[in-house]
């Protein structure tokens, strides 16, 4: 059985989805999403989730698999398990699996065949940690687990809390447990393609334009319809939603909320670029102002 898996990664708004769809049409492929926000059924406009028309009849997996009511939680361990099941199914049917997304933790955990132990939760400790700011929690993580602190941004409060919780429960740092989990190599041959903008301003222009398109498409109405889930959506860190909730709560004007979405999205793109640049096995595709579909022929024989 063919064991080749193509991975398309890069920062938000870089053109990953379009390239993956064109490549899937050429290679008889099917796409597995690696986007931590597009898994939620109710988050559509603000996550730039591809519509049925945009998918062009190419099968997509791991999109719309969970509700924002968070009746069941989702994490990287579950992603790796589900992605593995999707890959097996796609390969058995003689198709080409293509993993596409910008959530680096999901992608790298699957590529590295990371094995996750199931840890108990300490809800009381977690709730206590919620009272601290992300910066304060990050400083605490630096003292306990500097390796994990170096990989987790101070704004990512959810991941910082989980790392601290794991240490409290197990007495070992998350970085130690992650290192131990990589006991075996993967059975797959990964070809990782990264989309890169040498001119960062061009990427930021795309981000700003995409946010404007989201507003025109009805982002405010979408967020308003999800108001009862406000706390859950803020907790999962969906950019574009928290900012509009603040506008709806009267914390800021709409224009200020829009500018915050653009700024937070640009900062997120920077973090994604930093993450993906660490992998020396990534084949970089320069995309500054190019029509990515023109690169399909040169990618056809990868």
Q: Could you characterize what this model shows?
A:
The chain contains 15 helices and six strands. It has helices spanning 16-27, 52-55, 76-92, 104-111, 123-129, 134-144, 146-151, 157-170, 174-181, 200-216, 219-225, 230-236, 241-248, 254-277, 296-299, and strands spanning 4-9, 29-33, 60-61, 96-101, 189-196, 283-286. It has 302 residues and is an alpha/beta fold. The chain has a six-stranded parallel beta sheet, sandwiched between helices. Helix 3 (76-92) crosses helix 4 (104-111), helix 10 (200-216) packs across helix 14 (254-277) and helix 11 packs across helix 13 (241-248). The model has no long low-confidence stretch (mean pLDDT 89). 51% of the residues lie in helices and 10% in strands. It folds into two domains: 4-115 and 184-299, P-loop containing nucleotide triphosphate hydrolases (Rossmann fold), CATH 3.40.50.300; 123-181, Histone, subunit A (Orthogonal Bundle), CATH 1.10.20.
Task: Kindly summarize this structure in a few lines.
With 302 residues, this protein is an alpha/beta fold. It contains 15 helices and six strands. The relative contact order is 0.17.
